[in-house]
């Protein structure tokens, strides 16, 4: 009886041993270790992707900052140019004839300038006339100098600027009829000149002096239409805003 019990116990133990559960595994993905390793690879790949994404975002942000810096620098330079042009406008607008230079001496000066122009040539003659204004401030002498240049070199690359300078000098002497002729020459004959918009503004200002408000308004609006966002347009807008009637 004891022998039978012993044999039965041995059989039970053997059966239990064979019935012990095997290590947990996934028929499709392998064991838990394999799944953990796979998850670790996925996590590492995601981390690497996040890192790459952050790096690209940092690079883009730096590019944006660089572009913003370039834009700010360009805006500063543009503002400086506008300010300089405004200063030139003011300087030209405030030109006055020198009281120490009698009007009677102008014919002699014109003769002298004409003689000098024949030896200076096109560029030298133009520069000499400009220097009379900007450096020597001999405004009365500059008028015949520009007139002589225009007569001698009517189709010069400097002709538009010379007519504009002449118009401005005459405008400052209240000789509006002659000034109008000079500015009108720039507008009609030199359509591609960068002085055309300025000349239109000056013609508008002359129209105001002549109490032609409608004509002035039309000229200012022409500048706003054809030269939007320019310094001349801003000046035209100021004049238009102040225009009455």
UniProtKB/TrEMBL annotation:
It is found in: Periplasm. Its main location: periplasm. Keywords: Cell cycle, Cell division, Periplasm, Signal. GO terms for cellular component: outer membrane-bounded periplasmic space. InterPro entries: CpoB, CpoB_C, TPR-like_helical_dom_sf, TPR_rpt, YbgF_tri. Gene3D superfamilies: 1.20.5.110, Tetratricopeptide repeat domain (1.25.40.10). One of its GO terms (biological process) is protein trimerization. Residues 1-19 form the signal peptide. Pfam families: TolA_bind_tri (PF16331), TPR_16 (PF13432), TPR_6 (PF13174). Residues 32-104 form the YbgF trimerisation domain. NCBIfam families: tol_pal_ybgF. HAMAP family: CpoB (MF_02066). Belongs to the CpoB family. Mediates coordination of peptidoglycan synthesis and outer membrane constriction during cell division. This is Cell division coordinator CpoB. It comes from Shewanella polaris. The gene is ybgF.
């Amino acid at each position: 009886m004891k022998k039978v019990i012993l044999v039965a116990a041995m059989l039970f133990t053997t059966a239990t041993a064979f019935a012990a559960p095997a290590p947990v595994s996934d028929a499709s993905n392998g064991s838990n270790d394999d799944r953990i390793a796979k998850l670790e690879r996925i996590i590492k790949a995601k981390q690497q992707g996040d890192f790459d994404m952050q790096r690209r975002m940092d690079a883009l942000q730096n590019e944006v900052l660089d572009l913003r810096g370039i834009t700010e620098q360009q805006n500063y330079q543009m503002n400086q140019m506008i300010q300089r042009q405004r200063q030139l406008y003011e300087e030209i607008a405030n030109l006055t004839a020198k009281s120490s230079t009698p009007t009677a001496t102008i014919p002699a000066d014109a003769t002298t300038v004409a003689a000098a122009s024949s030896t200076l040539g096109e560029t030298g003659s133009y520069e000499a006339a400009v220097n009379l204004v900007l450096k020597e401030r001999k405004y009365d002498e500059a008028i015949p100098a520009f007139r002589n240049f225009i007569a001698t070199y009517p189709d010069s690359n400097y002709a538009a600027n010379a007519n504009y300078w002449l118009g401005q000098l005459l405008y400052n002497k209240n000789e509006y009829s002659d000034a109008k002729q000079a500015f009108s020459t720039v507008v009609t004959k030199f359509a591609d000149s960068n002085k055309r918009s300025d000349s239109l503004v000056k013609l508008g200002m002359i129209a105001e002096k002549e109490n032609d408000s409608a004509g002035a308004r039309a000229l200012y609006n022409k500048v706003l239409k054809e030269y939007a966002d320019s310094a001349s347009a801003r000046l035209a807008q100021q004049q238009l805003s102040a225009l009455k009637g």
